[in-house]
Amino acid sequence: METRNVGFQADKMFEKYINELILNKVFSFDEDKILMLSKVPFVMFPARAMAKFVQTTAEEMGCENLYQIAKQAGYMVADEFIKEFNWATAALPGKMAMIKKMFEVMGFGNINLKVWNAKDNKLLVNVTNHPVIEAAKKLYADKELVCPFYMAIYSAHLQKELGIEKCELIETQCIAKKALFCEWSYNIFKQ
Amino acid sequence: MAEEKLFAELVTRNILSVGDNRLKLLNEINISMYGSKAWAFTLQEIGKRMGTDYLYQKGYLMGTAAAEELAELLAKEQKYVPKMLYELANAIMATGFGIVMYKRQADLATVEVQHNQIIKFAKELYGESSVVCHFYRGVYSGFIEVFEKRKIALKEESCICRGDEKCRFSG
Fold first, then answer.
1. What global pTM score does this model have?
2. With contact defined as beta carbons under 8 Å apart, do A66 and B141 qualify?
3. Which residues of chain B from 57 to 116 reach within 8 Å of chain A, CB to CB?
4. Which parts of chain B sit beneath pLDDT 50?
5. Which candidate in B6, B34, B93 is best for mutational testing of the A interface (most A CBs within 10 A)?
């Protein structure tokens, strides 16, 4: 029993160490900017406020219109990543664990690439622990329109950085509709 | 008044930290990030299609939502919260809406923007055609309403996108 407690404490200490490392090494702070790896500027928002912004905008201006804006915004950030970090398809596999952790902390969810096949242009991704989607689920339940907004951003990144041509993700499962995770796919159809 | 280095100090003071693989404010409020240039673009496109009044309303909604979430937490956790967060300008900064100077003289409230990367990017990208400031006018109006419990709709007095030294809103 004691050993388990010590182990638990050690795990917590290690987690705290990793978290501090992420904050201090991955992000730097300059005036009101958060710079990712000292280069790409990001802005932060409370996730619940962001969920309200996305939901109401999608309701009022149309989901498809907001999707197109989010996709263009995703391309802009992907171009910044490629320019600043040389994140092209070939360079990514070795860095994927670090990128996954970084994006999760940044509020883009825990991304689990189930299928990544650039040759056949196929992709299947699961997303959990996404603070904005979770806030939207609490606020709007199965009426939430936040997932398409983030699907657009993901589609842009997957196209530019993972080499999935003309990527347009479609939703196959959603936590707001009682699934365990959001599942988005491109060119994969279940039997 | 928010000091310029306070944003970095949020981390050293543990106001902004990582827990459960999420960035959190005061260990409670989940934070989400967005590329800064991409956010300037997103706001500009929404404002262009839906109008500046609409963009103001979106800012007001987001400002009110952020301020209410923070105010709820401050009310609940008074003993453990750094006093700085009860000041309006610091609350705005800590929730990611830029560094501002807030003045209140009798009924006149004035918000002067000291640093706002999104407005700077909007100026670079769109110059005088930028409508992004209307969003922040709404955000700051929402914060004042929640923190001071009074109805307000700030008006723009000067704007860096139109060549002024600073953005200034009053109401």
1. 0.90
2. no
3. 58, 61-63, 65-66, 69-70, 93, 95-96, 98-99, 115-116
4. 1-2
5. B34
